[in-house]
Amino acid sequence: MKLSKINSLLVLISLGFLQSCGVFFTPPTGIEEHSVIGEITASEKDFKKLPAPQDPIVVGVYKFRDQTGQYKASNMGANWSTAVPQGLTTILIKSLEDSKWFSPIERENIGNLLNERQIIRTTRQEYSNGQGTDNLPPLLFAGILLEGGVISYDTNILTGGAGARYFGVGGSSEYRQDRITVYLRAVSTNSGKILKTVYTSKTILSQSINASMFRYVDVERLMEAEVGITNNEPVQMAVTEAINKAVYLLVLEGIKDNVWNTKNEDKTKADLLINEYNQEIVESNKRVAGKGVWDNNRRSTFSLGGSLTLNSLRGDYPDIVKELGATANFKYLFSDYFNLSLSYGYQNLGSPKYFKSQFTSAEADLEYLMLPFNNFTPYFSAGIGSIKDIKTPDKKIQFKTQIGAGLELLVAKNVGIRGFAKYHIGIDDDWDNMVSGKRDDHFLQYGIGLQVYLGK
């Protein structure tokens, strides 16, 4: 009877779980069922900030191509669909029009245009009845040609996930980051000189979340349920945003180097945008694909810190208890990856019923930062030190070695939070006033603290 109630409860929980996620099984309804106006990207809004041009620039685009040769990633055999949209020239022309700085003319399918003009001429001649016909107006010629394309599509530059399962019930989450790169250059039709080249990139994010249950509710009855959702950023939107950004930067680069000019009343506005652009260049130089922003000066040469600790003595007595302590430190960063750490602390160590005392500790460690240019970095340390039992004045200073590992997160420009664990290995066996066993006394230490970087 009891087993039957448990089985019924599991079924009800599963039905409720499926009901709560039922929205994911229903196809989206509403305006998306019909044709809609295309979305506006974030970079397209930047065009509204541009000053007005002195005269719109007539440009021609013969072919803005996908030069990656990349196919869509697939977990199930070969996929012959290209990863990058093939209508890149059309996207670029739309971006040029939206910028209000360029007047694009038809060059991608120039053969079709010339054929149509020839048909018009022939038709006029055949049906003119001997009367003179007006010539077609001449085609506009481009003062500048725009060349380039999507030159790179890098997949899986950053991947990760997390999950857990307990007694057949669990869930997981995964994410993946790809990257697309666009180059755009302006070429003078008079001289063939390349006037400007700009380069932009855009990350493409994919995320998935799923949950499942796999459990026997009876000897002969197996219950299995699964639900999930995946969110993939559209590649077309990412490409459009990268191309829009490239056009925006091309305009600013041309203004900056006097390749083209703004209206006189907009020169102040142009100067402000160029200052913002120069600052963006400085920040961009700190960026590495897939790793966020790297800053060589993120951590200053000198820093001070303090931490609270929990100490667990592993001596000659059987019982183990965690005691509180505190430590202050001074660090000298002598290279990007290494620093020298000097610390002094007050530690409680002991074993219930048998021994308890207070110690001062002094340590010198060499620390290795794995990701010194990131906000978040793991680190490892090793060094030598000493402890002194302050409750026993006649007891000499005792030496030790220590190794440790930890994590540091910069929560402000010059303040970091640290969590760490250290293993202190004694050279003597009488920390607890007892000599016994084959191993010298040692203790484990866990701590959390703040590190303040000076001179920033």
Automatic annotation (TrEMBL):
Gene3D superfamilies per the UniProt record, alphabetical: 2.40.160.20, ABC-type transport auxiliary lipoprotein component
Entries under Pfam families matching the protein: CsgG
Domain of life from the UniProt record: Bacteria
Entry annotated with the keyword Membrane: yes
InterPro entries in the record: Curli_assmbl/transp-comp_CsgG, OMP/PagP_B-barrel
One GO CC term on file: outer membrane-bounded periplasmic space
Keywords: Cell membrane, Lipoprotein, Membrane, Palmitate, Signal
Range of residues in the leader sequence: 1-25
SUPFAM superfamilies in the record: OMPA-like (SSF56925)
UniProt xrefs under PANTHER family: CURLI PRODUCTION ASSEMBLY/TRANSPORT COMPONENT CSGG (PTHR41164), CURLI PRODUCTION ASSEMBLY_TRANSPORT COMPONENT CSGG (PTHR41164:SF1)
Protein's UniProt name: Curli production assembly/transport component CsgG
